[in-house]
Write a structure and sequence with these properties.
Layout lengths: L1 H22 L6 H12 L12 H27 L7 H35 L1 H4 L2 E4 L16 H12 L21 H12 L8 E4 L5 H11 L1
Antiparallel strand pairs: 1-2
Helix pairs in contact: 1-2, 1-3, 2-4, 3-4, 6-7
Length: 223
């Protein structure tokens, strides 16, 4: 569902951008928008794509809308042959283009960064990437999202962890959901909440595909 939503935002931007230059003789920051268009066309969204990517796509859409409005005003101004007293309009135009270009560079960087992360995960090297830590505090940013039901899930997992029948048994608790809903944040909170109850604990980072034997070896080495 998240991938479909991101695809919708992508398609909407592409359609709007393709129409805009046809309407105006001069469209502001056209080369920069064209570069972002190429980045978007080169990538596909999947369930593994972070939902947080919707924010730069939203902002990209608004930036395009602002440039369209700016181009319309420029066309009206030229049609009315208005004089630019004291270069006020020229200064406003430069300031608008400067701010917008800066924002577009940030959007492009965000989109490219996400592509690079996915490329690493899907590469042969990424398939064997397993890292074992004693604690995630030094390696993972802790972010507590505002999500309804977060505390309820926290309490349920807390209770499940202590339902192991005996010391030799293992409980496996899965945390699933689309990207950006707070799965890692929930795992962080659980880890810190119960760490005093366990003598041995590890925080393990791994890619979507991995070798179980390699994982076991890394854990044993970590102990």
């Amino acid at each position: 569902m998240a991938a479909d939503y991101l695809q919708f935002l992508k398609d909407k931007f592409i359609d709007d951008f393709k129409e805009a230059p046809e309407e105006f003789d001069e469209f502001p920051l056209h080369p920069r928008f064209q570069k972002i268009l190429e980045v978007l066309q080169a990538r596909n969204f999947s369930p593994a794509t972070p939902l947080a990517l919707k924010d730069p796509l939203y902002r990209l859409k608004f930036a395009l809308a602002e440039c369209i409005m700016f181009a319309e005003k420029e066309r009206e101004r030229k049609a009315q042959d208005k004089k630019d007293h004291f270069n006020v309009h020229s200064l406003k135009k430069r300031w608008f283009l400067y701010k917008t270009k800066k924002r577009l560079l940030k959007f492009e960087a965000k989109l490219c960064k996400t592509v690079d992360n996915e490329a690493v995960e899907s590469s042969p090297l990424g398939l064997s990437m397993i890292t074992v830590y004693e604690t995630p505090s030094l390696f993972e940013p802790i972010f507590r999202p505002t999500i309804y039901g977060f505390d309820d899930q926290l309490q349920k997992i807390d209770e499940l962890l202590f339902k192991t029948p005996d010391a030799n048994s293992i409980n496996v608790i899965g945390i699933v959901g689309m990207g950006g809903v707070g799965k890692s944040a929930l795992a962080h909170e659980i880890f810190y909440k119960v760490q005093s109850e366990f003598d041995l604990k590890f925080w393990i980072r791994l890619s979507e595909k991995f070798n179980p034997e390699n994982l076991e070896s890394k854990i044993m080495y970590g102990t």
